[in-house]
Structure formats: C-alpha cells, structure tokens
Amino acid sequence: MAACSRSSSRRRSVGRVRRPRTRRRPVHEILRRARAARESDDRGYTLVELIVVMSIFVGLMAIVFGIMLQMARQTKDNLARTEAAAQVRISLMQIDRQVRSGNVISDPKQESSSESGADKYYSLRVYTQTDGVYQCVQWRVVFATGNDFGRLEYRSWKPSWQATGGVDAWRVVARDIVRPAKALDKADPTTWPPFFVEDNQAETSSNAQTIRVTLRVKDPDQSEGSKPATVTSTLTGRNTIFGYPADTCSPVPAP
Description:
The protein is an alpha+beta fold. It has a domain at 69-200 and 209-236. The protein is 36% helix and 22% strand. It has helices spanning 2-15, 27-41, 47-100, 113-116, 161-164; strands at residues 102-105, 123-130, 133-142, 150-157, 171-177, 195-196, 210-217, 229-236. The strands form two sheets. Strands 1-2-3-4-5 form a five-stranded antiparallel β-sheet, covered by helices on one side. The chain has a three-stranded antiparallel β-sheet with strand order 6-7-8, with helices on one face. Residues 202-208 have low confidence and may be disordered. This is Type II secretion system protein. The chain crosses the membrane at residues 50-69. Keywords: Membrane, Transmembrane, Transmembrane helix. Residues 1-25 are annotated as: Disordered.
C-alpha cells in the first residue's frame, strides 16, 4: 500500500508544471521608475527643434501676408483706375456733346500756348451751339512745373467777347491726367496726345471735322508700376460741313 501511494504521488508531481517564482520589486524601486518616466516625458522639445518649427512658421506667415498684401494693392489700384476712368468719361461726354453740335473745330496742332496756355495737341477749340446759344469753348490739359499729373480744364466765351465781355474763367473738370510715354506716332495708340486730327480727316490746316480725344488718368496713390486708365474716342462735328468761317472764335482771350 505504501509503495502504491508513493507511485501515485510521483505521477501527480510529474504531471504538474512548476512556474518560476516572480521576484517582487520593492515599492521604492517602482516609485523611482515611475518618477524617472515622468521626468523623461516632461523634457519637451530641444532648442534646435523649436528653431526649426519657428522658422517654418515664420516662412509660411510671410508667404501668406505677402499674398494678402499683393491682393490688397491690386484691389486698391483697380478701384483707383475705375474711379479715375469714370471721372474722365464724364468729361468726354461733355466734349462729345460740344463737338457734335460744333460748327467750327480748330485743329489742335495749330493751337499755340499764347492762345491756350498749353502745348499743341493739348488744347481744343470749338465754335458750338446749344439750344440756340452760340459760344466758343476751349479745352486744355495743363501741367504744373515739375508735376507729372495734369488737369483737364474748360472755359467758354461769346464770339463778341471783345465788345460785350462774357469770358468765363477756367474750370477744372478732371485731374491726374498723365502724358503719353512717347512722342506722337499716329500709328501707335499708346502715343496719342489728348487732342489730334488724323491727316486724312482734316479739311484745312485750321478746320477739322473729326477729332480724336484720348485721355489717360492715373491716381497718384496707385503703385508706380501700374498703368493709367485710358479713355479714347473719335468725335465728329456734324455741322462743320456747312462751311462756317474758320476764324469765328478768333481772336482768343488770353489764357
């Protein structure tokens, strides 16, 4: 019986798998490791990493602000061009009405500074009528000394002004007019002055039926590289075919 009991006990001990005993760490060791891990997590970024991140951020912000600034500048230029062009178009409409009802249109090439205070091609004189009232009107573009931005001015007088008076003072109708970049080349629209007659449209040296009016305007606040707004039109005097005397508006009052 004893032998049988020992044999049975041996078989049970052979069937069990012994597990290795786990060594329990002391509490202070566990706390030390936890504190070390926490301190390792609190280290953050290094100085080099911060410099790289800040450099990338500053570069991106510079690009964004540059794009926004360029868009704002373009918007401002477009608004300035639109407002300037609208101002000139109103003036051109007034010139158009006077030329269309004009009886005599003097050739701007023949105008002198003593008659208008402006260079040739920068003055226009018309003998016109409105509602049965006959009058002489004169337009000019003048520039102050050392100023690249000129004024479009207008005045009128009665043909009998020497006897009856009635010469109006110059009135400014548009500002910030700029000159063409080059001398006149009639084949190149970018060189057209404010007033001129094409050679094949002039009846005589001092009487013209059709006038080319070109006004360029640029707001002084526009960026230096922006282009001026250009308004141009061909105006025809319908009554010039009736042969009114070319010197109807002569002599001209002093400018």
